[in-house]
Fold each of these.
Amino acid sequence: TAKRADERGYRLFELTMQEATQRRRLLEVDLRRACMREDFQIAYQPVIDSATGAFTGAEALLRWTCPKRGNVQPSEFIPVAEELGLISRIGAMVLKKACIDAASWPGHLDLAVNISPVQLLDPRLPQTVFQALEDSGFPAARLELEITETALLGNDEIVMRTLTELRDFGIRISLDDFGTGYSSLSYLHRFPINRIKIDKSFVQQLPADAGSASIVRAIAQLGQSLQMKITAEGIETDEQMAFIAEHGCDDVQGFLISRPIDADKIIGLFQRETSKAAA
Ligand code: C2E
Ligand code: MG
Ligand code: MG
Ligand code: MG
């Protein structure tokens, strides 16, 4: 009967829910343990100048290899770390380790570090950043923090205070994944923002998709008129690269240039370029 089928459906639903809850609890346990042991790595993805092809720096990207699960994607574990209240601690670790690594890069190269919206609302963030700079000797003027549009929404006062404090210290702020979050364009000039990173979902539709092409052009123009730098992320093909270079994006990041690689590899890459330039 229909009622039986309903009951069976409900039973299955309950089992699936239980399984999901169980899986999630196990993930939480593993993540807490990794956090306690600071058992994370950082990969670095190089960024180049779209006009010259020269490196301008790299973005630090968090990596977690769980002994049981293998590599877990940031998109899977970062939201959990945020909910569990672990992200400020993990973020502090990323800042410190990335600044230490970047302190041995050639002096013209910048370091970008992602900051979760939860970290941005933590009043201790500026102190954490200053501490990482002090411990590593990495200069504030070469550090960029990447925040998202959504993080600016509805928290004007605290976010403004934090961003202003960071700016006064010489640190630059980028708006990551631009075009995908909730934001109002008025944020762009109200907050001290130095750079816009055009989200890869637009870039990856280039050059064929007319809508994405218009959006990329419009963002690049907006950035230029507000005197911000523009980065295009997620460049995978020569055609995308050509479009971006032609339409006023300053910097480029994507698998076409390099995937995220480990700290030893990136320094090798940077040193080879520097010695080639000197030769
Ligand atoms: P994001 O900051 O926008 O970083 C760029 C993401 O795009 C990275 O994914 C990178 O590997 C990927 N990517 C770069 N070039 C290409 C490309 O050409 N094609 C494709 N398909 N993908 C490309 P990843 O490392 O998985 O990180 C995902 C997101 O996780 C990041 O997006 C960032 O929002 C977050 N995340 C990563 N590390 C941290 C961290 O230390 N702290 C915080 N709060 N978030 C982080
Ligand atoms: Mg980023
Ligand atoms: Mg990015
Ligand atoms: Mg992004």
Amino acid sequence: HKGKYEHYMQKEIHEQPESLTTTMRGRLIRGGSCKAKTVLLGGLKDHLKTIRRSRRIIFIGCGTSYNAALAARPILEELSGIPVTMEIASDLLDRQGPIYREDTAVFVSQSGETADTLNALEYALENGALCVGITNTVGSAIARKTHCGVHINAGAEIGVASTKAYTSQIVVMAMLALAIGGDAVSSQARREAIIESLFELPRALKVKEVALMHSEGILAGEMKHGPLALVDENLPIFVIATHDACFSKQQSVIQQLHARKGRLIVMCSKGDAASVTVGGSCRVIEVPQVEDCLQPVINIVPLQLLAYHLTVLRGFNVDQPRNLAKSVTTE
Ligand code: UD1
Ligand code: M6R
């Protein structure tokens, strides 16, 4: 039920502090002063040894679920030390890409019923890989056919555009990284900082209303390899420049965009507004800073609201975009 909201998408965006709390419930253990903070994923505990021994972890999914995996990839590589590759399910099948017994294949799907992802799962099972599911729907085909997995427990998502499932998927994959990383001493401080940041996340998510515009995602490093040619005083550009290892790179991109008179909206960490407005005027959205691997969970919220308001203003159906179905059960 939509309750006080006009649309499911709006409801689901605003629900994220609660859905993330449910995703993490019973799975994060803070411990006493001398007890280390840990993660417990019941569905994986008997399989962690096998996962740690695998030669490669392959994330497989479609659409938003694929993108959630893309956001989680760096932390999984960092904490597990295992190479992580990405596959769009249909592309893996079209190529008949190699999969081996020594691989762990992680299937990310909100519905658990997406045909392409399901077909890729059958393919990975035939090739002997350990198959892990990250699904929102208990009893779904992907949840049943994977060897093991984690339910994201975000609650039913009705809006076709994935919002709360996306953030819960990222959080589960961060917890997966922590679980695989185990108790290596070298990364203990990092793991504890992430767990602390996970506890804080629902509170940090109380970010609200923002602006309105359409965008195409481009990595900072790619700007000068083409997209810079499009920039003029008419092109609205949304720059994500929250504090992380790439911040100085983003600052120089902002300078270049200012120099070409781009119409910038810059998303930055609280307190960084002055440094991102050097060299030209722009709108700024400050967001709370969290542990870098969880920053995508925060940064997506203004973008979700942007998509929502833009769609509503243009008079389109936001819960059911034309030509799309919530769950794509045909190839
Ligand atoms: C489970 C219970 C939860 C209970 C908790 C108490 C279910 C669905 N979950 O949660 O109600 O509160 O124990 O300890 O009964 N799985 C897959 N593929 C997937 C997703 C999950 O194979 O894509 C498997 C898991 O390996 C596991 C089972 O399904 O065997 C349940 O997974 P999950 O709900 O994530 O486990 P818990 O969090 O332990
Ligand atoms: O149910 P799934 O996560 O497997 O669905 C995959 C995609 O169809 C889905 O993420 C789609 O991209 C979104 N609903 C669009 O926001």
